[in-house]
Amino acid sequence: MQKCCKGSEVISKKKILLVGGCGFIGHNLALYLSKQGHDPVIVDSLSINNIYSLDNTEILNQKLYKSILESRLELLKKNDIDLIIQDARNYNSISALYEQIKPNIIIHLAAVSHANRSNKDPHTTFDHSLRTLENTLDYAKTKKIHVIYMSSSMVYGNFETKEVDEDTACKPIGIYGTLKYAGELMVKSYNQVFDLPYTIIRPSALYGERCVSRRVGQIFIENAIQNLEININGDGEDKLDFTYIEDLVRGISYCCDNEKSQNETFNITYGNAKKINELINILRDEFKDIKVNYKEKENFMPERGTLKIDKAKKLIGFKANHSIETGYREYISWYKNFWNKIN
Ligand SMILES: NC(=O)c1ccc[n+]([C@@H]2O[C@H](COP(=O)([O-])OP(=O)(O)OC[C@H]3O[C@@H](n4cnc5c(N)ncnc54)[C@H](O)[C@@H]3O)[C@@H](O)[C@H]2O)c1
Question: How high is the pLDDT of residue 314?
């Protein structure tokens, strides 16, 4: 493995395979890892929540999302990051492909990454989330390649306390959280049986540049920019541990660079939940006339809160840098620029 410099620190340059790496987290992560001196390679079908599935998006935002997704591809190209278009469910093709890539680390991101969509279509969710994961684990097992699995805060289910840590019992509700937890157990079982090194990461309520997943932070800006009303499920007093994408990708990169991350589970979030209404207040500074409607809460959406990040701080030196005060403002500013460019 080559050495490369990250500031004054010398790290080993690693070939890092990102399965599902052209999604929101994956492409931001690939860009970050490449800047750190690593060699990321992406395998993605572009078929889930991506450019080949745009027909399923509401007409209103198709042009916008197409431009956002194309800008991901342009950025990857500009940074010489390889993207191989391949469905990761196909065991034979994918095993041969991984064998050619010969990664030092695999980060598994492929999934149907949306609670509502998962509840509506469990079969597709299972197929893209767990079938693909099993293919990754099967390839990695004999070579003992470090597998980093992207799980979710949804594995905790309803938070029974204001804060949860990695030792809090997981009681997922609904298809998405349950399949994410099933994925965690699969990863751990490969560690038990094959001694496969792993890291499990639980992010929460992400927001940031080039997201098309239609989570609250994104929809609020999109509606505000188009002078549309904003709908909130519930009274807006629910708290979420909103996390800016830069903090997450930096946390994942620490897991790639630090062996202490191996065979551990980490919450990688901002580490302090905020009310949805606080996000709205920030938005109001930028868009004075927004109109907000409060609607009934969605089914199977757990009550959440803060994910403690003390363990990540202690073992891998992770600290989040962006409160919503800074991160959400940066995201709004990016969105305004992007919007002006394409309109
Ligand atoms: N975004 C969040 O807020 C969040 C929070 C917690 C956990 N996660 C988890 O992180 C991971 C990545 O999330 P994201 O937000 O980047 O999702 P995303 O929907 O933006 O990206 C997922 C990518 O996986 C690809 N993919 C899906 N099935 C595939 C298959 N069969 N073969 C090849 N590629 C396939 C898609 O084409 C897409 O590009 C997911 O596992 C998700 O559950 C996300």
Answer: 98
Q: Which amino acid is at 212?
A: V
SS (H, E, C) 262-300: CCEEEECCCCCCEEHHHHHHHHHHHCCCCCEEEECCCCC
% residues pLDDT > 70 (the chain): 95
Ligand 1 near 50 CB (within 6 A): yes
Residues 209, 339 contacting (CB under 8 angstroms): no
Domains of the chain, first to last:
13-204+244-269+304-323 (3.40.50.720)
The alpha carbon of 248 and the centre of ligand 1 are apart by a number of angstroms equal to 14
**pLDDT tens per residue across span 210-223:** 999 999 999 999 99
| Ligand 1 pocket test, candidate residues 94, 113, 241, most atoms within 8 A of CB | 113
Does 26 contact ligand 1 (Cβ within 6 A)? yes
| Cross-sheet strand order for the sheet of 105-108 | 82-85, 39-44, 15-19, 105-108, 146-150, 198-202, 264-267
Q: Look over the chain and give the mean of its residue pLDDT values, rounded to a whole number.
A: 94
Residue for token digits 């409160």?
323
Residues 89, 128: Cα–Cα separation, whole Å: 7
Assess contact for 106 and 82: CB atoms under 8 A.
no
Alpha-carbon distance 81 to 84, whole Å? 10
